[in-house]
Amino acid sequence: MSLKSKGISYERELIHMFWKTGEWAAMRVAGSGSIKYPSADILAGNALRKLAIECKSSKSESVYIPKDEVDQLQQFASKFGAEPWIAVRFHGMLWHFVSMDNLEFTESSAVINTENIKNKGLLFNEVIGKFE
What per-residue confidence (pLDDT) applies to 132? Predict the structure, then answer.
């Protein structure tokens, strides 16, 4: 399976999670990242909230997201009236969501790793407001 196919399958996994709540709808944005306009990988929402989500998955312990990709997500979310989130799934871990306020940056990228995501990331149920 190609890296692109793996990324798409992780995006679909997250979409199914939103739909299975019975309260959220979600869709994958085809071609995100390959068009000249800012976009997100996934749009999810319910009657009260809209989320613009950039998805990342990794077998390593860190994910680097170029600053311009983060800026484009924020720009899209602002125009669309959605909350911008980065969703990350590290190998062997659950999905975690990181808000723009909790991103850490190097000179050229936002960096999310398995350590800081435990402190600064939210689990899926926390993002959708289901605390069990």
Answer: 54
Note down the domain range covering 81.
Answer: 3-30+38-127
Residue 12 forms part of a structural domain: yes
Q: CB–CB of 79/120 below 8 Å?
A: no
Residues 78-106 as b/e (b if ≥16 CB within 10 A, e otherwise) read eebebbbbbbbbbeeeebbbbeeebbeee
What is the 3-state composition of the chain as percent helix, strand, coil, each rounded to the nearest 5? 35, 35, 35
132, part of any domain: no
Residue of 32, 39, 57, 109 marked active site: 32
Tell me if residue 32 is catalytic: yes
pTM of structure: 0.90
pLDDT, tens digit, 9 for 90 and up, residues 47-71: 999 999 999 999 999 999 999 999 9
Number of domains observed in the structure of the chain: 1
